[in-house]
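Note to self: keep these together.
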Amino acid sequence: MQPILPINQNRSSWRVSLTFISLAIVIGSAIGIFIAKFNNPIYILLGLVGLVAFIGTIASVEFGLLFLIFITYARVSDIAVHFHNAPSVAQAFIVLLILAILIRWVVFNEKPVGWQLPAILLGIYGLIGFASVAYAENTTEVIYKLSNYVKDAIIALVIVALMKRPPILRHVTWSLLTAGIFMGTLSVFQYITGTFTSNYGGFAQAEFMNIAGATNDYRLSGPIGDPNFYAQIMLVLVPIALERMLHEQKPVLKIIAGWAAVVSILTVVFTFSRGGFIGLMVALIIFAFLNPPRPVDVVFAIALGVGLLFFIPSSYYDRVLTLNSLLPGQNGEGINVRQDNAIQGRASQALTAWSMIKQYPLLGVGLNNFSSRYQEFSKEIGLAPSASARSLHNLYLEVATETGILGFSAFFMIIWLAVRSIINARRIFLETSNDDYANLTIGLAAGFGGYLMAAFFVHSAYPRQYYLLIGIVFSLPLIAEQLRAALNGNKAQGSIYYDDKRT
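Structure:
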C-alpha cells in the first residue's frame, strides 16, 4: 500500500509533471521546426544550443545565468549575426530566461527579489530617453538607441533576478574570466603571430591605424570592432583576475586566473588605447587601495610587470606619451594637441557638446542625436566642421548633451546605486567574516571603477557589457544579506537597498 500524499504535495507534483510534459512537447516541436525550416547547419546548431541552454536553465538557474554572461561579454550573438548571418542567439535566449524565471516562480515558488529599485531607476532613464522622440531632430536615431537600451536594461534585470544564491557570485566571476580568456588569448595570439588578416571567426578583429606621429600599426579590436571599446571591457577583467589569482585556494585556479590577467593586460596594451591605459591604471589603483598588497604580492607584481615588458612594443610607449599634451604647461615639445588629430577632434567635440548643453539644458538635443547635430553646432562656435557626423567620445558628456539635466541625473542615480551596492555588500561580507566574498567584491569594484574612468574617453556605442556589470553589481547587496541571514539563522529574505539601519 502506497502512502497517501498531502493534497498540496499532490498538486505540486501534478504541476511539475504537467510543466515538464509541456516542455517536452514544445522542445520536440521546436527541434522539428528548426530542422524542417533551416537547411543551414549553423542555424540548427544555434537552435539546439539555445534549447539545451533553456533546459539547463529550468533545471539549474545558475546554468542559464552563466551562459548569458559569457555570450554577452564575449559578444557571441553579435558575431554570429554579423559574421555568420545567423539569427540572434541573445534575444531568443533572453526570452527563454524570462520564461524560465516565470516557470520557476509559478511551479517552484522561487520568487525573484531585489529587482524593483533597479527597475525603477532604469525605467526612469529609459522614459526620459523615450520623451526625446517628441522634440529630437532625428527620431530614427532615438528609436534605434532606445530599442537597444531596452534590451540592455532587461539583461541587467534578468541578472538581478537570477543571482540569488551566494555561491553564484564566484561562478559569475569565473564566467567573466572565461570570456576574458577566450577573447584575450585569441587577441594575444593574433598580435604575436601577426595574423591580422584573419579575424578568427569575428572574435579577433584588428585595424591598421595611426599610433603616434607618423607611426602606424595594427590595433586589436576583438569582437567589438573598435580598439577603444575593446580595451574598456578587457581592463575590467584585470583586477578581477588578479583578485582570484591572489585568493583562490586551488593552485590550478590560481594559474587560470593568472592566465586571464596576463592576456587581459596584453590585450589592453595591443589595442593602443590611451583611455584604456588610464582606465587600467585607475582600476589597479582602486584594487591596491582596497586590497593593500603584502610584500610577497609586491615582489610578484614586479616580476609579472618585468615579464610583460618583453611583449610591449616600443610604439605603445610613444602612444601613451602623447597624453603629455593634455597636461598644463606643456611647452610644445614632442607630440602636442595640434599634431594629434584624435585629441584635437575630441577637444572640439567637448566644446560642441558644451554648446548644446547650454542651449538645451533640461532635456538635451535628444537621445543619440549628438552626431547628427555636431556639424550645426561646431559651425556656430567657430570650429572647422567635420565632413561627416561625429560621435562624442565621453559617455558622461554624451548623456548630458542628449538627455539634459534630467537624463544625466537619472544616469548618475544608476551609478550611485551601483556604487552603494558595492559599498554595502562589502561591509556586510566583512562583518560576517565572509572574506572570500569581500575579496570578490573588491575585484568587481576595481574593474567597474576602471570601466567608468575609461568612459571619459568613449561614448555609449557598445553599452551591453556595462549593463551586464550593472546587473551583477546590483545583485551584491542581496547576496550579502542572504549570507548574513544564514549566519544568524534567519531565512527571511528581502531587498536591502540602502536602508542604512539594516546594513
